[in-house]
What we know:
- By secondary structure, the protein is α/β, with parallel strands linked by helices.
- Helix content is 42%, strand content 14%.
Amino acid sequence: MKSNFDEIVxxxxxxxxxxxxxxxxxxxxxxxxxxxxRTAPAIIDAMAKRVQHGxxxxxxxxxxxxxxxxxxxxxxxxxxxxxxxxxFTSGVVPALSAVIKxxxxxxxxxxxxxxxxxxxxxSIRNDECEMVANELIYKDGxxxxxxxxxxxxxxxxxxxxxxxxxxxxPVGRVWTREELQRIxxxxxxxxxxxxxxxxxxxxxxxxxxxxxxASVSNEFLQNSVTCTAPSKTFNLAxxxxxxxxxxxxxxxQKIDKALNVNEVCEINVFAVEALIAAxxxxxxxxxxxxxYLYDNYVTLVDFFKxxxxxxxVLPLEATYLVWVDCLALKQTSExxxxxxxxxxxxxxxxxxxxxxxxxxxxxxxxxxxxSNLMKGLEKIRKIYG
Length: 385
């Protein structure tokens, strides 16, 4: 392996949201979804070259940017995207907010599959819509979709959008083609547009394949909006760049207007350079990263089996966010998170951040050096082992 993911990179004192948000410098953060690894060398080199130019004026997004996006998704995900379908913005959350604003009226309903990424809730609320939960079914240590309930929720007159988290954060599922097919058919029947957040699409592990929702059929392509970014894949959240893919011209024009109204229709010079380098030259680094991340997951699973066998770790099909069932502890997820932070200075996420369906669970970010991972696991063992 060319990249040394075991190398400790000091992030505290770098204005890192993950590491500098805690008042206590002894806190080990395994919460917010960014990684503790340096990004791919090609990205660093591209940005360093741009710095040397020394002028950072208003930025025109070049053809090479669109070529990088379309080439990546064709090669990696067999998803053919036309340049004209792409709208760029500063992040997937601003993208989701703009899409909701563009395609709903205040009081409309937006379906989400809970437990789910917490910013879905705020984006819906901020656009004055109503969140409707199609709660995932948790059974035998994994999650599945309640299609009967989804049909009922989609049939409600004010249901206009479904926010699909694919791959799913926090439960770690990669939806199969059959599952996507059923979602798409239900939404088509009920005239509900699917907005697919696919930010974790590149972090999928062996035995699983990410299928872009819009690639399943032309009907789904025309009835959907896809939000993507290199931020999770290449640890570029602070660079602030994302893309919205909308094949339907009417839908795309409405979103473009919302992006301009929200003033999130521009990206910066480093975002352009970073994305181009990531998608054109970052594939080998990504493959090494995925091996390291999955080894971290296996390390965590083995540790829990040995020392915390009453806490089931759910299968991780994608992402670097591990979902753990803590029912046996007979504490709320918030109490568990507070206990670990107060007594062991370990910061993880309580499951209820992701909706009421997240009660009894915690989320652990394993995208860190293995030595940090082991420190975090020992802290959990000390309290609950």
